[in-house]
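Hey, quick one: can you model this chain's 3D structure?
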Amino acid sequence: MDYGLIWTSLLLLGIGLVMVYSASIEIAASRNAFDYQNYYFLMRQSVYILIGFMLGYITFLIPVYFWQKMAPFLFVLGIILLIIVLVIGVEINRSQRWIPLGIVNFQPSELVKLFTVMYASDYVLRKSKQMRTIVKGFLPMLGVIVLTGILLLRQPDFGALAVITMIAMGVLFLGGISYKVITGLVISAPIIIYFLIIGSQERSNRITAWVDPWSFATGEGYQLINALMAFGRGEFFGVGLGGSVAKMGYLPDAHTDFLLAILGEEFGLFGVAIVIGLFSYLVLKIFGIAKESIQNKKHFSALMAQGIAIWFAVQGLINIGVNLGAIPTKGITLPFMSYGGTGILVNMIALAIILRIDHDNRSNMRGQYYK
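Sure thing. Here's the predicted structure for all 371 residues.
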C-alpha cells in the first residue's frame, strides 16, 4: 500500500470531520429540524465515513477489469438516475438534485462523476484507433456529454456539469484525441459558457454579483461577502477552533460549500495552505500511480487513475476558487471534507479503486500478475 496516499486521505477526512462539526454546531443547535442537537451533522458525517470505509473495502476487493467490463452499463445506470431525480427528486434551495431514500437523500450526479471516469477510460481504449478522428472518435463522446449536460442543467447543477465535462475531456486528451479537436474546444468553450450564462437569469445574476458583490450585499453577493470577511478575520493563523463568527447564521451552507471559509477564519492562511498542500499531494500521488500503470501496460487502470485525479483536482479548485471569490459562486463541495453523504461515499469508493490499482502495480513488480 501507498501509506502516504492513505494518510493524506485520512487527514483530509479528519480535518473535514472536525470542521463540519465546528461549522454546523450553531445551526444544528438552533433549529427544530435538527432536534436542537449540536452534534447532528457530526454524527451523520461520521456514519457516512464509516459506511465509506466499508464500501471502500468491498471496492478494493473488486478487480479493476470488472470496472472496464461494466463501464458502459454503469454509465447508462447513471443517466437513468439523472432522469429519475427529475421525476421524483426532492427540491432543496431551488435545485432538484436529490432522490429521497427515507432518512437520507441520494445525489446521483456524484455517482455519475465516477461513472464518467470509467466510461471515458473504456471509451478511449475501445476507440484507440479512431481517437484522432472527429466523426468516430470525438462526436460520440460529445453526444454523451451533451445528453448528460441537458439532464444536469434541468436540475440545475452547473457545477457537476463543469466537473464531468472536464473529466471526460481530460481523459480524452490523455487518450490521444486530435489536437484539432482540442483547439476547437478551447475556442468554442467560452462561447458555449457565455450562452449558458445568458440563458439563465440566476446564472447571469451570479456573474454580476461576483464582479461586484458589495452592490448585491443582501442578494447574490451575500455568501461571497461573508466568505471573504471570514478569510479576512482569520488572517495568518486564525481565531482558533470554534471561534468563527461567520458560521453563526451569517454564511449559508457553511458546513458544505463554504467549509473552507470557516477553516480560513478559524485556522487562517496557515490552515488553508495545509489543506491545499494535502490536496496537491493527493492528486500528484494518484498521477504517479497512473504513471506506474502505464509502465505495467495497464492502460485502463492508468486512464481511470488519471480521470480520478482530474476529478479531485477540478472539483477542489472550483470549491476553493468559489470560497476565495476567484470564480463565481457555485454550489459544489470540497472532496473528502464537506458535509454530504453521497459525495463522501463516492470519494472514498474512488480512492479505494486507486488503492487497488496501486496494489496491482506493486504486485506486478513482485511477479504476481493481475488482469
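One thing worth noting: DSSP finds twelve helices and three strands in the chain.
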